[in-house]
Design goal:
The protein is α/β, with parallel strands linked by helices and 199 residues long. It is 51% helix and 13% strand.
Length: 199
């Protein structure tokens, strides 16, 4: 089973590509499962509890990060470890925690290492989707106006730029990460991703 992750700031096109990839590989008879880990227990409860007790206005602590890391590892073990599956495609994974939880004072790489320490499996490939931060912020704001759901962390352009810097720091230190620019058609982006997946 190969683990494929899609990462990046809000508005770069992750969910669009995630849905397209799951559909593509399913239609080509590759045993494929698409995953949004916050929909599965116990990670789902860990996220819910954090929102209820703290939320994004308070900085993360090392204890918070450890709870998320443990819940993530347990979620994978309980739900996905023994699947008869060729491709596991994730819309966000532990790189999200590494990019978004730095208010605790740890670097993105240090947060990533905590997640690995508790047993979250490393992806075979992680695609970091990226475009101009002004464009991604505009896209996310437009989407939020339609859906009525606000961005929790990408609340302004400065916040988007900070998250983007964290992702680029991870890109430099993790060889399984591949940069994919999304300033082209959805079809061209999908094509460039598929070429890099060994199926």
């Amino acid at each position: 089973m190969k683990i494929i992750c899609l990462e990046g700031c809000s508005g770069v096109g992750k969910t669009t590509q995630y849905q397209a990839l799951v559909e593509h590989f399913t239609n080509t008879n590759v045993r494929t499962l698409g995953i949004v880990e916050k929909h599965y227990e116990p990670f789902k409860t860990a996220v819910h509890n954090w929102y209820q007790t703290k939320g994004p206005k308070l900085p993360f602590t090392v204890e918070d990060i450890t709870k998320f890391a443990k819940a993530r590892a347990q979620t994978f073990e309980q739900n996905f470890r023994n699947l008869e599956c060729d491709l596991l495609i994730l819309d966000r994974y532990y790189y999200t925690s590494a990019a978004y939880q730095t208010s605790c004072g740890l670097t993105p790489q240090e947060i990533l290492e905590i997640n690995k320490k508790f047993g979250s499996p490393s992806p075979d490939i992680t695609f970091l989707l990226d475009c101009d931060p002004t464009e991604s912020f505009y896209r996310s704001q437009t989407r939020n106006a339609i859906t009525g759901v606000g961005s929790v962390f990408s609340t302004n352009l400065k916040a988007v730029n900070r998250l983007r810097e964290n992702y680029y720091a991870l890109l430099k230190q993790n060889q399984e990460m591949e940069l994919i620019k999304t300033n082209k058609s959805t079809e061209k982006v999908q094509e460039s991703i598929i070429k890099k997946i060994p199926y």
